[in-house]
Design goal:
It is a single chain. Among the domains are: about 170 residues, Uridine Diphospho-n-acetylenolpyruvylglucosamine Reductase, domain 3; about 100 residues, no CATH class. The chain is built from 17 helices and 16 strands. An eight-stranded antiparallel β-sheet has the order 12-7-11-10-14-15-13-16. Strands 1, 2, 3, 4, 5 and 6 form a six-stranded antiparallel β-sheet that branches. The longest helix is centred in the first third of the chain and has 16 residues. It is globular, with a radius of gyration of 22 Å. The two termini are about 40 Å apart.
Length: about 475
């Protein structure tokens, strides 16, 4: 992607925006999504983002990249790994875009040391509600836009270009899966690793875990390694392949049950280890059944394919019809990522086991680095320097006729708030407006929006994430 091609794509974007009638909703015309919100149908044309999905330039010496906003992490990683580089944080799913991760939620196993995707952004071009393209940096005249953009979910505009920092990575990742039976010991170990970046004297470069059941928790410690550092003569011959018959999340239990829980992956396979089976959600489509998996083409074992299958279920109500026919209670969809302070992790897991009962749960520690001046991001309720744990859970719970009122999701919101945490807004939210304003600092968001979207053409954050039904 040349700079000239990029500029031409930005012009097409601006022209498509000018063609949208005043008062009509503004949305992106894109094929894929990683949002789990029900969105109102619209006949208005979407923004033309064709030509904004590539990598413009990788500067291997400076360890930076200029990337278009609609570029997927799959394409971004494909451009950086040949240079021995990767983004500071690569979210788990291939089709998450860089712009989407920065304006929304992005997290992964490097977040305990690198924070969140927006915290490695050096500058960004934002297409605003005024139809302008603004270059925002931490210290220019548009620093207010730069600091408010994360977690704004398109309510301030869309990133057309981002300059990000990259870090050096070797070809392999050595894994160790460690089991814990006590949630408090789990939390203490996470804290110790976050402070030292070590465990048992070995460096830890990536840290995440899975709660399979009460008393069965695993931490996966990742150490980025050269071929020599693996201690294996021909490491490429023994790396695990979880795009085939084996399922990654099951390996945590299986390997830990047979000694030290060691594993070895290529850096590419480690980055996408969760995407192949959409964590564990591919099981809902039969993709983990060995007989079905054998005939399920590898190219279709990926999160965006499962997302399309889920869309068909939503459209035709397949799961509801099967439940009705079998006499089962109606399901409530519970798809959330929440964050709680490390000291409250055990309390949350105990409550979640008792009240929700969904398993497994993904655990990902994170520490926000804060803004360039060390302050809290204006729309992102994380205290810089403090350790949180993201808990991700994605599935359904049988609740009966009350499913439409989302009792489980509302209970989760209330409990997380009590524990000093918050949740991502990529999925359904049910907060009342005053609580939402307190949690996500919408007074500041409204003030910045008034500057960059004076005619209020873009949907507000609350209307987009809560009132959109």
């Amino acid at each position: 992607m040349s700079w000239e091609q990029h500029e031409a794509a930005v012009r097409r974007l601006q022209e498509s925006y000018a063609a949208i009638p005043a008062g009509a909703p503004v949305r992106l015309a894109k094929r894929t999504t990683n949002l789990f919100r029900v969105r109102a149908e619209s006949t208005a044309p979407g923004l033309d983002v064709s030509g904004l999905a590539g990598v413009i330039e990788v500067d291997a010496h400076a360890q930076t990249a200029d990337v278009q906003g609609m570029c997927t992490y799959e394409d971004l990683v494909a451009a950086t790994l040949p240079h021995g580089l990767m983004p500071y944080v690569v979210p788990q799913l291939r089709t998450i875009t860089l712009g989407g991760a920065v304006t929304g939620l992005g997290i992964e196993s490097t977040s305990f040391r690198n924070g969140l995707p927006h915290e490695s952004v050096l500058e960004m071009d934002v297409f605003t509600g005024a139809g302008d393209v603004i270059t925002a940096t931490p210290d220019n005249e548009h620093a207010d836009l730069f600091e408010t953009f994360p977690n704004s979910y398109g309510s301030l505009g869309y990133a057309t270009r981002l300059k990000i920092r990259l870090e050096k990575v070797p070809p392999y990742v050595a894994l160790r899966h460690v089991r814990f039976e006590d949630a408090e010991l789990l939390a203490k170990t996470i804290t110790a690793i976050t402070e030292s970046h070590e465990y048992d004297g070995q460096r830890v470069d990536g840290l995440d875990g899975v709660a399979f059941a009460p008393g069965e928790y695993y931490l996966t410690l990742a150490r980025f390694a050269t071929a020599e550092e693996t201690g294996i003569a021909r490491p490429h011959e023994v790396t695990s392949d979880y795009t085939g018959q084996h399922v990654y999340y099951r390996s945590l239990q299986e390997r830990a049950a047979h000694g030290q829980g060691q594993d070895l992956l290529t850096i590419l396979d480690y980055i996408w280890r969760w995407d192949t089976d959409w964590f564990w959600c591919s099981g809902a489509f039969g993709a983990q059944n060995p007989q079905i998996r054998r005939f399920w083409p590898r190219r279709y074992r990926r999160s965006d394919v499962y997302m399309k299958l889920l869309g068909l279920d939503r459209r035709f109500g397949i799961a509801d019809k099967l439940d009705d026919r079998a006499g089962r209670p109606r399901r409530e969809r519970v798809v959330q990522d929440i964050e709680v302070p490390i000291e409250n992790l055990g309390a949350f897991l105990e409550w979640f086991d008792a009240e929700i009962g969904m398993r497994p749960v993904w655990l990902c520690p994170l520490v926000s680095t804060g803004t360039a001046t060390g302050e809290q991001w204006r729309s992102y309720p994380l205290k810089p320097g403090e350790l949180y744990v993201n808990a991700g859970f994605w599935g359904t719970v049988h609740v009966g006729d009350d499913a439409e009122n989302a009792p489980k999701n509302r209970a989760i919101e209330a409990r997380v708030h009590e524990l000093g945490g918050h949740k991502s807004l990529y999925s359904e939210a049910f907060y009342d407006e005053p609580t939402f304003a307190e949690l996500y600092n919408t007074p500041n968001l409204d003030a910045v929006k008034a500057t960059y979207d004076p005619d209020n053409r873009l949907t507000s954050l609350y209307d987009k994430t809560v009132k959109r039904r």
